[in-house]
Write a structure and sequence with these properties.
- The structure is a single chain.
- By secondary structure, this protein is α/β, with parallel strands linked by helices.
- It has one domain (about 45-295).
- It is built from four helices and 14 strands.
- The protein has helices at about 80-85, 90-100, 145-160, 230-245, and strands at about 45, 60-65, 75-80, 115, 120-125, 130-135, 165-170, 185-195, 200-205, 255, 270-275, 280, 285, 290-295.
- The two termini are about 30 Å apart.
């Protein structure tokens, strides 16, 4: 069945910057601008350690009739990495992680969530291969790119890789070139924009080591082949992938008063989870089945 989504999703609720209710909007949102074509709700932020509330682990999210990623695919766009340097090999780590995550018990947590097609439930799947490709774009990037600029970069990724209704287009910004309030208020975010009338899900993943411990550096003892300075890379990648898969067009998919399925578990019970023959530092994700933060499912 063809699943072409026109970008006219129903807005689930009116968002107030003063409230964290109705889809998990952050209580105070950074002023990073609004992407062209995006819904008025704007980006959904993964809060930094200092900004994140202490959430109780027993929780559930609700479905708001929006789309999920039924056949997930991830495309990585490294914007300016060659020009501004990558001494900590973040690109290699993010590529390795994205190639290894498919079929994992960790991302199997997302398969309990679904969208509706008529009266039928269509569930998120967890195929073994979810890596769609990687592209280095060395076009100019501002010192502090706005969300509109990040969204435009995601559209460039669509033009480069091709359009996929289920895909996540991940914009990784380079060392020293992060959107405003990265590392203080937030560590990553995802949102959606439009390309030729079609929905495009994208994420902004800055150069995580620049934020240090506030975005996951040295949070636990890292895997034996990974340094502590880059632990936030896989923590935030896992956070964003899980939330895009279950809420492609925030906040119309799965979310609640605290947020999406990674928000409620953020910065708690960190572990080096197995992904094939490797392990990567990860936060747990919310399982509606148990009402708890879990590292695998079932």
């Amino acid at each position: 069945m063809a699943r072409l989504r026109e970008f006219s999703a129903v807005i689930v609720c009116a968002v107030s910057l003063a409230l964290a209710a109705c889809g998990g909007r952050d209580a105070v949102a950074p002023s990073v601008g609004v992407a062209p074509g995006a819904l008025n709700q704007g980006p959904h932020y993964a809060l930094s350690r200092s900004a994140s509330p202490d959430v109780q682990p027993a929780y559930h999210v609700l479905y708001h009739n929006g789309p999920v990623s039924v056949n997930p695919k991830v495309y990585l766009i490294f914007w300016g990495y060659e020009k501004y340097g990558d001494s900590l090999h973040v690109q290699k780590l993010l590529e390795q992680y994205t190639k290894a995550m498919g079929g994992s018990g960790y991302l199997n947590i997302t398969t309990q969530y679904y969208e509706l097609s008529g009266s039928n439930k269509v569930y998120v799947t967890n195929p073994s291969s979810q890596f769609g490709g990687s592209w280095n774009d060395e076009s100019p990037i501002s010192k502090s790119p706005t969300d509109a600029q990040v969204a435009n970069e995601a559209i460039k990724g669509v033009k480069h890789f091709g359009y996929d209704v289920d895909a996540s287009y991940i914009v990784a910004t380079p060392h020293g070139h992060s959107s405003p309030e990265f590392g203080t208020h937030w560590c990553a975010y995802h949102s959606s924009t439009a390309y030729q009338g079609k929905q495009v899900a994208y994420s902004n993943i800055p150069y995580m080591p620049d934020a240090g411990t506030n975005c996951g550096a040295n949070i636990i003892s890292p895997p034996s082949d990974e340094g502590g300075k880059v632990e936030g890379v896989t923590i935030m990648a896992g956070h964003e992938y899980a939330e895009i898969y279950t809420d492609l067009n925030p906040f119309s998919g799965w979310n609640g008063q605290v947020g999406e399925i990674a928000d409620v578990c953020a910065w708690h019970n960190m572990a080096n989870d197995p992904f094939g023959n490797k392990s990567y530092t990860s936060q747990p994700l919310l399982s509606n089945a148990s009402g708890q933060c879990e590292h695998s499912y079932p």
